[in-house]
Design brief:
single chain, 3 domains, Dna Ligase, domain 1, about 35% helix, Rossmann fold, alpha/beta, 14 helices, globular
């Protein structure tokens, strides 16, 4: 304990969970973020905080180098954006990263295009469990995307990686209702990216497989099932619950090993309960937005990994000891509810049922809340204040 740990992107929900986990354990937390209003800055578990230059600013790496030296930082908990920002100087900072891997592995796992390519190259087709799709790198390859039975009928997604961007363009995911929309959006994005990934939409519920792999060995694992998404047609799990599925877990372990990733990651899947089919969507090679559920259920990934970095490795395999339901109330569940109310698809009675369910969950004390965390509850209040301020500013 009493080690100085830098936590990047203190504005992100998953990194707030990291701050709480490590702060509770006695580590001194130095929180940084690109915006001065980052919620994690106000956590009772934050020892010090500072706003840094933009990741795209040439001053970021020199600023980081100076910050580490001035504050005697002994470990860094990175975000995806942080890893992309230090790519050119990765070797300099990697000794401070827990479970650091080669920079080539980092680049692969931060790229949806490269991830899919490696898995398809290393696995037999029967073990892919990947939606129909492929990479497009040029107009010529786009011209080969014809309407045929092998592609399905759609809808589709186009996914663009920041890793594959030709400039400082960020990552993008675009929904395409049919093959014509798919062609249109690929053609629009191609000038800004070296390659793009397209995938056919797959049915089912979202599943997250959270893993920690240390020195080639799996040390902790858990799973989560999405109950509500924000927006309701697909997105972040605003309401989720503990889950377990041995076949999906085994597939996630195998894919993580093939990708060569060490450390923490959330492997995202879609699962169709009626047929028990599942599809791997992507790897999120950093701490995930659903991390509070793991903390509530006794799967304390940040502390496990940090303790191991400082010489004390402990395993936490198998299902959690208790099932947990957790929600991200504001703005997550509010966004879910509003997206359902605005949609034409649900019937009126279904919309009213969603409204009633939203308010009834406030009275169900078995349901945990991401931000209503013991010893740090004011972040929940701050999130509501920020939400109402944003609504007021929009009206004006």
């Amino acid at each position: 304990m009493n080690k100085n740990v830098l936590v990047a992107e203190a504005n992100a929900l998953g990194m707030i969970a990291v701050i709480r986990s490590l702060g509770e354990a006695g580590y001194r937390i130095f929180a940084i973020a690109p915006t001065p209003d980052a919620l994690g800055f106000y956590s009772t578990f934050t020892s010090s905080y500072e706003c840094h230059p933009s990741y795209t600013d040439s001053e970021f790496v020199p600023w980081l180098r100076s910050y580490i030296e001035c504050n005697d930082i002994q470990m860094i908990v990175p975000s995806e954006g942080f890893l992309q920002a230090i790519n050119a100087a990765y070797g300099e900072f990697s000794p401070l990263l827990p479970d650091a891997v080669d920079v080539e592995v980092v680049s692969t796992c931060l790229s949806k295009v490269a991830t899919q390519a490696r898995l398809k190259a290393r696995l037999p087709e029967l073990d892919w469990h990947i939606p129909v799709g492929g990479a497009v790198s040029s107009e010529a390859e786009l011209g080969q995307l014809a309407i045929d039975d092998s592609m399905g009928t759609g809808p589709f997604f186009v996914k663009a990686d920041a890793e594959k961007a030709k400039s400082n363009t960020g990552s993008k995911v675009i929904f395409c209702k049919d093959i014509h929309a798919l062609h249109h959006h690929i053609r629009q994005l191609l000038p800004d990216y070296h390659s793009l990934l397209w995938q056919e939409y797959v049915p089912g519920k979202k599943v997250g497989v959270s893993l920690w792999r240390h020195q080639g060995e799996f040390m902790a694992e858990s799973m989560v099932l999405g109950v509500h998404m924000q927006p309701w047609t697909g997105g972040m799990m605003s309401l989720r619950e503990s889950f377990w599925h041995e076949a999906i877990l085994a597939d996630a372990r195998k894919k993580m090993e093939i990708l060569g990733w060490q450390g923490v990651a959330m492997m995202e899947y879609k699962w169709e309960p009626e047929t028990d089919r599942f599809w791997f969507i992507e790897i999120n090679a950093r701490f995930w937005g659903y991390l509070h559920l793991d903390l509530y259920s006794g799967k304390n990934y940040p502390r496990l990994q940090t303790d191991a970095f400082f010489g004390h490795a402990v395993k936490n395999l198998g299902p959690p000891n208790r099932k947990v339901v957790c929600r991200h109330t504001v703005p997550g569940e509010i966004g879910y509810l509003l997206s359902r109310l605005r949609s034409r698809q649900p019937a009126i009675w279904q919309k009213w049922r969603s409204v009633a369910g939203f308010f009834c969950r406030f009275l169900d004390f078995r349901i945990k809340s991401d931000l209503w965390y013991p010893g740090d509850r004011m972040l929940y209040v701050r999130s509501w204040v920020a939400y109402f301020k944003s609504m007021f500013s929009k009206k004006n």
